[in-house]
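Duplicate of #3305? Posting structure anyway:
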């Protein structure tokens, strides 16, 4: 089989048994999460892409030879994948076909007899079989179990792994959030070869720093909700005029520019500084006065316009002129 597609709930996964059980696609609600930085032909030539099984070793070898379980192996004369520094990397499967043992809508089981390939035993002389069991669950998603079974009396060193190339279709990479459980940090050198030093590392969560700085989140003035019982924030006086109750910024439309002579532009007001607010218009304040204060104020205004005979101008009556009979 060239492709096997599993479906469960809103998940969908596609495997390629003809290409070393490569996971070629993984979808959720129609969105693709597998990236293809290289083509299938590149993968057959030994370069990783999509979600491949890298075997019998993952990552890099420090040299063209190694020793494992008492066996010395030389790789100098073999054609194997190498990284830009010339180090051997990611095993020698080269998209070898797997034999499908079981397949249905939610599960596929494939098998590879590694010991049956003499060319591969030259790089890894430990006969064994590889079984890949991939299951798709409607709520838990994709689960892949890889099992290695020796087929001879010689023990088999384990150093394989899966190498996922993934993407998030709905968000740019700068907005990704990474979380991983408690583990060990493996120290590597400049060529990404482990030095042997391991450090315990706690569980961590790495989120993008898209939130505004702390100074910006606390400097904005608070606004009480409508019908809130919270008392209003007291207004601060403007510079140069501590008696002014106005707290509007200087860029407000009612701002009055200072006079070069040092006096206020508005006539009839004492000099309280260049940012003093103009007095309220007559009649505006009276609308908010208590009734007895408003009557007192009206009486005062009425007294200013009384005539000499003590009557208000609106109460004066024009004297009638009577004609004289001739």
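Output from current build:
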């Amino acid at each position: 089989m060239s492709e096997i597609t599993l479906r469960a709930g809103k998940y969908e996964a596609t495997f390629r048994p003809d290409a070393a059980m490569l996971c070629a696609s993984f979808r959720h609600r129609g969105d693709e999460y597998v990236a293809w930085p290289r083509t299938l032909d590149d993968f057959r030539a030994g370069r990783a892409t999509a979600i491949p099984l890298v075997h019998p070793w993952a990552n890099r070898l420090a040299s063209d030879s190694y020793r494992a379980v008492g066996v010395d192996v030389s790789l100098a004369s073999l054609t194997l994948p190498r990284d830009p520094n010339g180090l051997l990397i990611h095993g020698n499967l080269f998209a070898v076909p797997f034999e499908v043992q079981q397949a249905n809508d939610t599960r596929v089981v494939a098998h590879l007899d590694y010991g049956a390939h003499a060319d591969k035993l030259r790089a890894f002389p430990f006969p064994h079989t590889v079984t890949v069991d991939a299951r798709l669950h409607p709520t838990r998603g994709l689960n892949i179990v890889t099992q290695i079974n020796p087929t001879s009396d010689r023990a088999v060193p384990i150093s394989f792994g899966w190498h996922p190339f993934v993407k998030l279709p709905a968000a740019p990479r700068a907005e990704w959030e990474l979380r991983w459980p408690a583990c060990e940090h493996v120290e590597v050198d400049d060529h990404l070869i482990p030095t042997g030093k391991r450090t315990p590392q706690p569980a961590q969560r790495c989120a993008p720093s898209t939130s505004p700085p702390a100074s910006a989140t606390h400097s904005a003035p608070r606004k009480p909700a409508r019908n809130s019982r919270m008392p209003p924030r007291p207004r601060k006086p403007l510079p140069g005029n501590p008696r002014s109750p106005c707290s509007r910024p200087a860029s407000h439309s009612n701002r009055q520019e200072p006079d070069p002579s040092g006096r206020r532009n508005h006539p009839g007001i004492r000099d309280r500084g260049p940012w003093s607010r103009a007095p309220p218009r007559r009649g505006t304040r009276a609308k908010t006065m208590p009734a007895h204060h408003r009557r007192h104020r009206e009486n005062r205004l009425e007294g200013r316009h009384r005539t000499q005979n003590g009557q208000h101008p609106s109460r004066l009556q024009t004297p009638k002129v009577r004609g004289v009979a001739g």
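Confirmed duplicate; merging threads. The longest helix spans residues 291-304. The two ends are 139 Å apart (CA to CA).
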